[in-house]
Design brief:
about 550 residues, mainly beta, 14-stranded parallel beta sheet, eleven-stranded parallel beta sheet, elongated
Length: about 550
Amino acid sequence: MTRSFPKSLTIILVLFAAGWLAAQFQNAEIAQARSVSVAATPELPRVTLNTDYAPPTGKTIAVNEGGDFQAALNRALPGDVITLKAGATFKGNFTLPAKKGTGWIVIRTSAPDAELPAPGTRLTPKQAALLPKIVTPNSDGAILTASGAHQYRLIGLEISVQAGVKTNYGIVKLGDGSEAQRSLANVPTDLIVDRCFIHGNATGDISRGIALNSARTAVIDSYISECHGVGMDTQAICGWNGPGPFKIVNNYLEGAGENFMLGGADPKIAGLVPSDIEFRRNHLYKPLRWKMGDSEYGGTHWSVKNLLELKNAQRILIEGNVFENNWADGQEGFAILMKSVNQDGSAPWSATRDVTFINNMVRHSGAGMNLLGVDSNQPGEQMRRVLIRNNLWEDLDGARWGKTHGRFLQISGAPDVVIDHNTVLHTGAVITTYGDPSQNFVYTNNLSPHNEYGVKGDGTATGNGTISRYLPGAVFTRNVLIGGANSSYPAGNLFPRSLVEVGVIDRSGGFRLTLLKPYQGSGNDGKDIGCDLAVLGKAIGGVAVN
């Protein structure tokens, strides 16, 4: 099947006779008994950061157009606030110094709070006139941190790269990813980027919006765009030499390579794995003006890879995000990649583990998710404990977006993976697997087309043959595989004949999934099969607003 799906869908599942359904589940009592997860549960973040705003108690240092911003930074004491004149431009590479004592230093626009978006509301370029402009004129960051800098909060700033700069290696650099930061004692900590507009220029190679090599750092309610490069990796946010915890909440993230990535270079701090990460309510987006051949294509072939990639991270909650627009270019078109990678060969402890990916929407991509337990070329510790639950995957179409033919999941050698209650609209295989087996695999309560290959491994038959070889002992039950063959799969799954039979209908009112009585509560947990779109809607409400 090679059809692609429209942006907005209403799905009504018109069910088969209740007696037929009951018979299917009667024959699957053993599968139901096994449906209790055999996989280890991912650990959630141990620490979450409180970013509530406390008004400063010290003096106010006002910096007007033409004033010396760095001198103000050097003079400020914990508890002070630096106000930069709204609309003024401050050109240079400004360093946040390390200060003795405790208390936050706030750097903010002079515009009053009443004119800014309220806390918890994302700032957009429409508010740019209210913001002072901090502009780097060269390849270095507009905002940098000194070793050991701590307790800085940036509010309502536009931070960018001067027009005409050809290459920039990070607009905001929090911490140092190089040999200069080899000790936790040197890591900047307690940093908050709050309601800021961070962007590259239209024509330059811009490595990243924020380099996240710090501790106890939050990026909230902000807008990061124009991070792109030709023949190079670029990200809206990327970190590799900071321990966390991190809070990345309610941001617009636009990056050509990976919109968000942890890893990608070896940490210089021995044993470091970025940990305790809250990644919620973000809109990760690639503009179609970056896509060659699209009617909106702008003429520059920026190198495109994926929307989110984890190479070295643990205890990360990814919830309520919208991942949108991804196509085959520098990679094959998977929206989400997770693997453990000892990138440069000097960090064998590198590991991705304890990932919770829930209540997200992934749409308009060549393929869905790629999970690789061990990268044989750059082996770290084996990736494990990944939960993928209650997500909507829409318009995964290889013909439109990528080389991977609209696959939902590709997996190799990754133990303790649970895929549960997902609704997937795609044109290719449901699961593709190869290499080492993935032990303790659970695939339950999911709804998708089967398409030509369904669950297919390298050199094995569709369905049971693949499960036996590559997913040994898997729990595989209570899934709807439209167009599949009952005889090819474990008992307890459902196989309507076609999308037409289950009633896929286009409507302008958005995406809705209605299950009639025989399917209601028929999951192995007593819930409806597929994604609970009411829960999803609450999680992502208002996220996809540029």
